[in-house]
Amino acid sequence: MRKSFFNPYGVWALVxxxxxxxxxxxxxxxxxxxxxxxxxxxxxxxxxxxxxxxxLVLILLVVIFVLWKKRQSPSQGAAPSGSPRVNSKETMGGSxxxxxSSKNFLIDGKYRLIREIGRxxxxxxxxxxxxxxxxxxxxxxxxxxxxLNPRDRKKFLxxxxxxxxxxxxxxxxxxxxxxxxxxxxxVLEYVDGLSLKDWLDEKGxxxxxxxxxxxxxxxxxxxxxxxxxxxHRDLKPANILVDKGGRALIADFGVARxxxxxxxxxxxxxxxxxxLAYMAPEQHVGKxxxxxxxxxxxxxxxxxxxxxxxxxGPDFKAQKMEKxxxxxxxKGVKVPAKMEAFIAKCLEPYPDNRYKTAGKALDxxxxxEE
Length: 370
Known about the structure:
Radius of gyration: 35 Å
Strand content: 15-25%
Structural class: alpha+beta
CATH topology of the largest domain: Transferase(Phosphotransferase), domain 1
CATH architecture of the largest domain: Orthogonal Bundle
Largest sheet: 6 strands, antiparallel
Number of strands: 11
Number of domains: 3
Distance between the termini: 81 Å
Helix content: 25-40%
CATH superfamily of the largest domain: Transferase(Phosphotransferase) domain 1
Number of helices: 10
Strand order of the largest sheet: 3-4-5-6-8-7
């Protein structure tokens, strides 16, 4: 703590000195620390000028004293450490929002946070607004671990920018990629609906009619992205959003797996978050290709129809390699034979035995729809 050098009796001595200088005649100041009293003896002045000058000196000394006291006081209103750079003072309300968020905080000078809408393997997702365009968006603040490795952060942001170039009605668009200080954000198309995982948690499973309706567009989006050289690598119901019009959209194309791999390297722990049931066997050893997404799609279709994942664990890789799962007919789920064959081909343990491309899988899907 800073030592105080303030002595009230010394100040009165300074006042007396100022009066002496102002009036031009001797002035005395006597103070007593024991009695807390002081006295100033000033001879009578013949004009009003000395009084004015003395008053000005006194005012100056008071101002100096006040400024000194303010300097001794702790600063007020400092922003909490770790808060995003903002353009507003109003704090965001609601228990679902982080304490450093604000309703009128402007991230990158234009995105205002409204409320927190979810947390996942990639970070925190907020409903937000682009105040310049008056457009609702989803803003995803990336995990803290992304700050620890500049090289991983650079790769992630590059992949996010590449993914932002995708434009397909069944892919959630990345609208912006933001670096602000040491924080990273993705600005996404806002989808008014729920995830396929939430839908299944509520309904249990889908009819063959609904599966064909919802997931055909997902397969089309995979085909489109693969042709652009972009893989998803973490396809599962939690990453499929269904809007109120019944359109299914793939979220987190490519970037979700990048984040999980980075967290695994940073923490030394495998970041799966429910992914093991859907990932292709080759992904268990760190390999991925377009046909890995086809495997995940088949596992997802199976779950939608059966109400549970085809592989239950705990040794997921062994079950996949040995094709240890009940067929839909074994579970009493009535579907066309072509759908059974489609799922079986998608779930082949070796990539060469699956559909060669998502386009080939889409052709087979259209035959089921006929």
